[in-house]
C-alpha cells in the first residue's frame, strides 16, 4: 500500500487506551473533525443516570465544602444537579434536601428568623431578618427587620424585635419563578418580600438586590425539574447499616437520585446496599462507585445500579494513589468503564480532576455522560463556607472527604469508633480562589464546551459518543513538550481571562 489514509492519522481511542499506559486528560489531545454547524447548535443535554435527565452535563460533588442547599438550587437552575453530601447527621442532610426542594429560585439567602420577643445581639452580615410568631419558619409571619433598623437602635441589648420591626410585609409565593418574583417586587414597589409556601411555611426572603444580581448573569436555560415539579436534587449515603435509615428520610424529602459514596465501590457492602435500594426504592436511581475498571463496573451493574461514578485518586484533594497505590489515570478510567457501561445503558459520571472546560470536553468525548466537580465549583458564591483572605487573595476552604479534618468532623460515626482504629487520611484540606457565582461561570464553561464539540464535529453528547465508538474520533498522546506548547508559554507576563 502506498501513501497515507485518514485511518493512519492519529489513534482511535480503542487503540490508544489498550497499550498498558494510564493516561489522564492532559496526556491526550483530540484531533479536530469537520464543522458544519454553529457552536450554539450544540446540545449538551444528557443523563445523570438511567432515568434522570439533565440539560447540562454538570454535577456538583457530594462534599461538605461543595454541595449543600444553595449549590443544589443553583445547579438545578442551570440544568445540572448537585449531590448533597452526607458528612452530617441524617436530620441535617434531610433539612438540606428539603431546603433545596422547597425553592424555585436559584438562591438561598440564609436569612435568620426571630420571634417578636427576641433581642438581636448581632445582625452579622445579614441584610434582613424575618419575624414570625415563634421565631421559626413554620409559624405565621409577623414582620421583617432590616439591618439598618437594628443598627440605628440606641439600646440594642434591651430592645425586642417587636419595637422596631416592619409589620405585616407583603409576601410572594415560594413557587414563583424568577420572572414572576421580579415582576411582583416591581409592581408592588417593594425592596424585599418573604417567599411563603402553600402550607404557610416561610421559605426565604428575596430582595431587589438578589433580582438584580441574578439578572446580571447569563440567561438561565432549562432547569432540572423532576416529575414533582421541584428542582432535581441528589444525595449521598455511605454503606453502613445505619445508612438505610438515612436513605429513608432522604427519600421522604423527595431526592431524585442517591449516590452510594465510596472510594472503592466494588465491595460486598456496596453491592448489598444497591440491591437493597433497588428492591425498596425502585423509583429512585441508584448511582454506584467509585470505579475505574470494567470488573468493578460489572459487579455494580449486575447489582442493579443506574449510574456509575468513575475516578479513583484523580481529584484535586485526593491522595489515594499516593497512600494506597491504587487508582487509574482518569482518561483511561473513563474510557474503559464507559465502553463497558454503554452496553448496559448505564451513564457514566467522570468524577474528579476537572480543572478547565477542555477536561470536560475530553471526559464527554471519552464516553462520560456527565462530569462531577469539586474544586471547580468550591470557590463559588454557592459553595458552603465564607470567604477568607490568604496572601491577599479571596479564597474559600475546600477539603477532601477523606481528609482527617472531614473524617473527624462532629457527629459522623462513619469513622469514629470504626473497626479501622488507626485513621489514615486519603485527602487534604486546602483553599480555592473566589470564582464568583456558578450562575455566571458555569454558562461560560458550557459555551466553551460547545466550541470544543464544534471543533470535533459533534452536535451533542450522543453524537460525540458515536464519533468515539466508530473510531472517527482521533487522539494522540502529548509529550511533555507538546503539553508545554499547548499551554501559555514564552511570555514575560500575561493576564489570563476566561470570559
Ligand atoms: N474518588 C476517590 O478517589 C476517593 C474518594 N474519597 C472520598 O472520601 C470519602 C471516604 O471514602 P472511603 O474511605 O472509601 O469510604 P467508605 O465508607 O467506602 O470506606 C471506609 C471504610 O469502611 C469500610 N466499610 C464500608 N462499609 C462497611 C460496612 N457496612 N461494614 C464494615 N466496613 C465497611 C470500607 O471497606 C473502608 O475500609 C468518600 O466521600 C469518598 O468519595 C476518598 C478517597 C478516594
Ligand atoms: O482521594 C480522595 N480523597 C478525599 O479525601 C476525597 N474527597 C473527595 N474525593 C474525590 O474527589 C472528587 C473531586 O475532585 P476535584 O476536586 O478534582 O473535582 C470527589 O468527587 C471525590 O470523588 C476524594 N478523593
Ligand atoms: K490526586
Automatic annotation (TrEMBL):
GO molecular function: IMP dehydrogenase activity; metal ion binding; nucleotide binding
InterPro entries (alphabetical): Aldolase_TIM, CBS_dom, CBS_dom_sf, IMP_DH, IMP_DH/GMP_Rdtase_CS, IMP_DH_GMPRt
Pathway stated in the Swiss-Prot or TrEMBL entry: Purine metabolism; XMP biosynthesis via de novo pathway; XMP from IMP: step 1/1
Predominant localisation class: cytoplasm
SMART domains xref list: IMPDH
Residue sites binding IMP per the record: 316, 351-353, 374-375, 398-402, 426
E.C. designation(s): 1.1.1.205
GO BP annotations, alphabetical order: GMP biosynthetic process; GTP biosynthetic process
Positions of NAD(+) binding: 261-263, 311-313
Residues reported in the UniProt entry to bind K(+): 313, 315, 318
Subcellular location: Cytoplasm
Any Pfam family matching the protein: IMPDH
Family: Belongs to the IMPDH/GMPR family.
NCBIfam families linked: IMP_dehydrog
Job of this protein: Catalyzes the conversion of inosine 5'-phosphate (IMP) to xanthosine 5'-phosphate (XMP), the first committed and rate-limiting step in the de novo synthesis of guanine nucleotides, and therefore plays an important role in the regulation of cell growth.
Protein name (database record): Inosine-5'-monophosphate dehydrogenase
Amino acid at each position: 500500500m502506498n501513501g497515507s489514509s485518514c485511518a493512519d492519522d492519529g489513534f482511535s481511542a480503542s487503540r490508544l487506551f489498550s497499550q498498558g499506559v494510564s493516561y489522564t486528560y492532559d496526556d491526550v489531545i483530540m484531533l479536530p473533525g469537520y464543522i458544519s454547524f454553529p457552536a450554539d447548535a450544540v446540545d449538551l443535554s444528557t443523563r445523570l443516570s438511567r432515568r434522570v435527565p439533565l440539560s447540562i452535563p454538570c454535577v456538583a460533588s457530594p462534599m461538605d465544602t461543595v454541595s449543600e442547599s444553595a449549590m443544589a438550587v443553583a445547579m438545578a437552575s442551570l440544568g445540572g444537579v448537585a449531590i448533597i453530601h452526607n458528612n452530617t447527621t441524617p436530620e441535617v442532610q434531610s433539612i438540606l434536601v428539603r431546603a433545596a426542594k422547597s425553592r424555585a429560585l436559584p438562591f438561598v439567602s440564609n436569612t435568620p428568623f426571630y420571634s417578636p420577643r427576641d433581642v438581636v445581639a448581632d445582625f452579622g452580615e445579614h441584610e434582613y431578618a424575618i419575624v414570625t410568631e415563634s421565631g421559626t419558619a413554620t409559624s405565621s409571619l409577623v414582620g421583617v427587620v432590616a439591618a439598618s433598623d437594628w443598627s440605628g437602635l440606641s439600646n440594642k441589648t434591651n430592645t425586642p424585635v417587636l419595637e422596631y420591626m416592619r409589620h405585616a410585609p407583603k409576601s410572594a409565593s415560594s413557587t414563583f419563578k424568577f420572572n414572576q418574583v421580579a415582576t411582583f417586587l416591581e409592581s408592588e414597589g417593594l425592596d424585599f418580600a418573604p417567599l411563603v409556601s402553600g402550607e404557610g411555611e416561610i421559605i426565604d426572603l428575596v430582595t431587589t438586590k438578589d433580582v438584580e444580581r441574578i439578572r446580571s448573569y447569563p440567561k438561565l436555560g432549562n432547569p432540572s425539574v423532576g416529575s414533582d415539579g421541584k428542582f432535581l436534587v441528589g444525595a449521598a449515603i455511605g454503606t453502613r447499616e445505619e445508612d438505610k435509615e438515612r436513605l429513608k428520610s432522604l427519600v421522604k424529602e423527595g431526592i431524585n437520585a442517591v449516590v452510594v459514596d465510596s472510594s472503592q465501590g466494588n465491595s460486598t457492602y456496596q453491592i448489598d446496599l444497591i440491591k437493597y435500594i433497588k428492591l425498596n426504592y425502585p423509583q429512585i436511581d441508584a448511582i454506584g462507585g467509585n470505579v475505574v475498571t470494567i470488573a468493578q463496573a460489572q459487579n455494580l451493574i449486575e447489582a442493579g445500579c443506574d449510574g456509575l461514578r468513575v475516578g479513583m485518586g484523580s481529584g484535586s484533594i485526593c491522595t489515594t494513589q499516593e497512600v494506597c497505590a491504587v487508582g487509574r489515570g482518569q482518561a483511561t478510567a473513563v474510557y474503559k468503564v464507559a465502553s463497558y457501561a454503554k452496553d448496559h445503558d448505564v451513564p457514566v459520571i467522570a468524577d474528579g480532576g476537572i480543572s478547565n472546560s477542555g477536561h470536560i470536553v475530553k471526559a464527554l468525548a471519552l464516553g462520560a455522560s456527565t462530569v462531577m466537580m469539586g474544586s471547580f465549583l468550591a470557590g463559588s458564591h454557592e459553595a458552603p463556607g465564607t470567604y477568607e483572605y490568604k496572601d491577599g487573595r479571596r479564597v474559600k476552604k475546600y477539603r477532601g472527604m477523606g481528609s482527617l479534618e472531614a473524617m473527624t468532623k462532629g457527629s459522623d460515626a462513619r469513622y469514629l469508633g470504626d473497626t479501622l482504629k488507626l485513621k489514615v487520611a486519603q485527602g487534604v484540606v486546602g483553599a480555592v480562589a473566589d470564582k464568583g457565582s456558578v450562575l455566571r461561570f458555569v454558562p461560560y464553561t458550557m459555551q466553551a464546551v460547545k466550541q470544543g464539540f464544534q471543533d470535533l464535529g459533534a452536535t451533542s453528547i450522543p453524537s460525540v459518543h458515536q464519533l468515539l465508538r466508530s473510531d472517527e474520533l482521533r487522539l494522540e498522546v502529548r509529550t511533555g513538550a507538546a503539553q508545554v506548547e499547548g499551554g501559555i508559554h514564552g511570555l514575560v507576563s500575561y493576564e489570563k481571562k476566561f470570559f
